[in-house]
Amino acid sequence: MKKLILPLLLLVAIGMLAAVESDPSAVVGYFKKTIGDGVYQAIALPFDYPDLSVGAVLGDQFAEGDEATDINSGFGTTYYSGFGWDGDLTTLAYGAGYYIHRATGNGVANYYLLGTVDPNAFTVTIYGNGAYTAFGLDEAAPVALTDALFGTNETEGDGITEIDTGLGATYYAGYGWDGDLVATGIAPTFAYYYNCVGASNFVWTYTPTRGAVTQTLMSTGNSK
């Protein structure tokens, strides 16, 4: 099986490159993820995709009974060998957070998120009154956690938590964000909870940065 991984990646990369062949400067990158048996892992899309359907993004890298679920909406889809993905969740979205569930008994697995390094803008509603809203950034490199990231919509006591590790940060008016996530930034492929303690929802539109992103990805070796 391991011998099939590289040919698979090369085939997917060729497909991606063909989709962007009109732009010879486009870079195709990938991130390798490892998920344990019976584990739920939170992810977000780090790349641009010509086709956002679940099958096009996640492919046939999974085993019978593995699942993908939109954390905010609860819509999900299950992988069936020889058929593919089936369920209410048919299309993925930039900025959203998803759970990948490795079905118990399927063992530890590696899978890959691969796409074009060309971040997209997106809009997410952050719900108030103490609600938790899952999100991630469509970026291929870490993004600093600053006041400007959320358009200065923060309220004293708001929190952000990386769903899998529990690393977090809290917002303090007049100071900014403080906590472990300030050092790490918002990392690619990871999903986070925004806990908004304010009474009102706010609509957050994220406009991605470019520039050094491609060079950063290429320097890690996660590019084609």
Secondary structure layout plus pairing:
Elements (H helix, E strand, L loop, with lengths): L1 H18 L8 E8 L4 E4 L10 H5 L8 E4 L5 E5 L3 E4 L10 E4 L7 E8 L5 E5 L4 E5 L23 E4 L5 E5 L3 E4 H5 L7 E5 L5 E5 L5 H9 L4
Antiparallel strand pairs: 1-7, 2-6, 3-4, 3-6, 4-5, 8-14, 9-13, 10-11, 10-13, 11-12
Main sheet specs: 5 strands, antiparallel
The helix/strand order is HEEHEEEEEEEEEEHEEH
Poorly predicted runs: 1-24, 211-221
Q: What fraction strand? A: 25-35%
Which structural class best describes the helix and strand composition?
alpha+beta
Which descriptor suits the 3D outline?
globular
Distance between the ends: 22 Å
- CA-atom Rg in angstroms: 18 Å
Strand order of the largest sheet: 2-6-3-4-5
> What's the tally of helices?
4
What would the average pLDDT be, to the nearest integer?
86
Please estimate the helix content. 10-25%
Count the strands? 14
